[in-house]
Amino acid sequence: GVIFLDLGVLAFKGEKERWIMSLTSLGIKNPSLALKILGILEIAGGLMLIAGFYTQIASIALSLLTFSELYIEYRDPNILKRNIVFYILLLSITFSLLLSGAGAFAIDIPL
């Protein structure tokens, strides 16, 4: 959850220009609005994972976001400056949370 929280904050601050360039290269009409939505979803999903609140629903949304970021990194690896292995690791973590559900100290019950 902390990783997604950090990625969401980076989308608003440190990596904003790189994200706008990558979204523009993908042909998205309004990249700044898409970046705001992406950042908000990553921050909200990260907080939900940390709190253990609707863990499986948050992991579905974060899996889709991670897969899209993996695709962006695959298309142009020079823009985001991350490794594809990083996104594969995040994707496997979100799939694991999707299948296993929340832990013993979470707020929700596995679906």
Short description:
By secondary structure, the chain is mainly α.
Task: Report the mean per-residue pLDDT as an integer.
Answer: 85
Outline the biggest β-sheet. Answer: none
Helix/strand/pairing category: mainly alpha
**Terminus-to-terminus distance:** 19 Å
The percentage of residues in β strands lies in under 5%
Rg over CA atoms, rounded to whole Å, is 14 Å
Number of helical elements: 6
Helix content: over 70%
Write the layout of secondary structure elements.
Blueprint: H1 2-12, H2 16-25, H3 31-51, H4 55-75, H5 77-80, H6 84-100
Helix pairs in contact: 1-3, 2-3, 3-4, 4-6
Textual characterization of the structure:
This protein has 111 residues and is an all-alpha fold. 76% of the residues lie in helices and 0% in strands. It is built from 6 helices and no strands. The protein has helices spanning 2-12, 16-25, 31-51, 55-75, 77-80, 84-100. α3 packs across α4. It is globular and about 40 Å long. The model has no long low-confidence stretch (mean pLDDT 85).
Name a few traits of the molecule.
6 helices
